[in-house]
Amino acid sequence: MKSWKSLAVAGVAAIALTLSACGTGGQATQNAGGNQAAAGAKRNLSFAMVIHGDPDGSFWNVVKKGAEDAAAQYGVNVTVTGNVEGAQQAQLIEAALAKSPDGMVVSLANPDALSSALHDVTSKNVPWVSINSGADVSAKLGALEHVGQTETVAGQAAGQRLAAAGGKKLLCIIHEAGNIGLEQRCQGAAQAFGGQVEKLQVDLNNPQGIESTVKSKLLGDKSFDSVLALNPAVASATLAGMKDAGSTAKLGSFDIDSNVLNSIKSGDILFTVDQQQYLQGYLPIAFLVLHHDNLNTVGGGLPVLTGPAFITKDNVSTVADLVSKGTR
């Protein structure tokens, strides 16, 4: 675990550098050509962010806000597009590349589907940063750095919490087939949980189906005492299914929405893993500006971690205030 602590320090240092540009009235690192990563200064730079989801969805709109806030600070242009299907995301990458951006930001939930498009990005010498998923393949695909949560480590932390709550048999719910990050979350949870772990495939776009599938599973095997959902909407549908089944299992979640926060307040959800996705939008734009101006890179070849942080009954009210502002 020492290496992860080291890169957490790298992430903190990078954030400090970014914030220092804001706090000094735009006095930031200057390159030989005289450009500056200056707060609020309009500059002729355009960046494209292409994600594996809806930019206006409850998770990704926070990433988008982070990118837009960084764009406003550094006076650059940012466009955000996305599609959950790997083939469609690859087409969006090619479409963004055709507009000759100064840099790109890409989430890597399905790296195999994106490899050809990302090869085109790299071959045209367009610097890019990966976010959210794919930390283990990011450098191999040509990214400058990766910003996000290492999903295996996050899963391990979630598994440890459920085990500490007395769990012996865990149901881990996967809502997108082929999403490597979700598989890694379940794998990490299994590694740290210490008891039996089973995976259950559901469809993110069918909440009623999730509810009925979870209900059926828990009625069929009442020995499950722990459940891990990997998405807020899935967590809410899972909770409904658990209640229908009369299950008293402990439920953990990943990520944030108002329903999950309210369920944590009421005690129906034990915790949710917060990967602080605002930083996954903000930091890559800041890093690309600094790379353009001063050839800076961060992480030393390792990911810059934004999580896992945990939201529990102890801190949920404070975090809820930040969620209402669109930054958590």
From TrEMBL:
CDD domains: PBP1_ABC_sugar_binding-like
Stated name of the protein: Sugar ABC transporter substrate-binding protein
Keywords of the record: Signal
Upper taxonomic lineage: Bacteria, Bacillati, Actinomycetota, Actinomycetes, Micrococcales
Signal peptide: 1-21
Superkingdom classification of source: Bacteria
Compartment(s) where it occurs, according to its Swiss-Prot or TrEMBL record: Cell envelope
Family membership: Belongs to the bacterial solute-binding protein 2 family.
Domain Periplasmic binding protein: 47-289
